[in-house]
Specification:
This is Adenosylcobinamide amidohydrolase. It comes from Kurthia gibsonii. The chain has helices spanning about 55-65, 140-160, 195-220, and strands spanning about 10, 15-25, 35-45, 75-80, 85-90, 95-105, 110, 125-130, 135, 160-165, 170, 170-175, 175-180, 190. It is α+β, with helices and mostly antiparallel strands. It has a single domain (about 5-220), classed as L-amino peptidase D-ALA esterase/amidase, CATH 3.60.70. The longest helix is centred in the last third of the chain and has 24 residues, at about 195-220. Helix 2 (about 140-160) packs parallel to helix 3. The radius of gyration is 17 Å and the shape is globular. Strands 1, 2, 3, 4, 5, 6, 8 and 13 form an 8-stranded mixed sheet that branches. Strands 7-12 form a two-stranded antiparallel ribbon.
Amino acid sequence: MTISKEQIQIRPSYVVFESNRPLKILSSALHNAGFGWYNTCINRAVDATYMCEDAHTEMKEYIEKHGFQPNQTVAMMTAVAARYAIIREFEADGIHVVIMVTAGVGNAVDVSKSYLRKPFYEVGTINIWAFIDATLTEEAFVQAMMTATEAKVKALADEKIADRISNTIATGTSTDSILIGATQQGTTQNYAGTVTPVGRILGRGVYETVVDALHDYKRAKGMME
């Protein structure tokens, strides 16, 4: 089994990844978070004013409405329009990855200063998918999430994305979501820290894709010089 960016399609109101065979996935998604085996992933675009008392039920209904199986699907949401999704492929050290990012940073937050804010929910967010054509241990899955998060933070720093409350460099938004998927075929990768074969290509790939997504966001908001 191999993966390619052609498996990710941009539809009017969502981005979808579909595979003939399920991938092992670890995610912080709204629908089917945690570990599991799934063949569909959805990144749903919602209006910035989206509010729902039971988002989990509403998301399940949305999945069914669009012809997907809830028990085979991981789904997250964002206020970034689906057309702004950035999809890239990377390969190095025998590791092939496909990455999708949507980035909206209107509610960017510096995690070290988040205590200055009152708890609230906004749907502007950075959503990251990283699909890896390899066999990952559970340890490697968790480390891959750490590596991808570090790459995202570095991208935000280099792009000088600021927390508007603290006026310091943001580390993310208050509602970011991340997904790591693996084909679970090929050589077993026991680790995915920053200097492992998986970590090296994942760090580069997530960083470059997040930067591209931030550039699109800035252009859309008229922030580019």
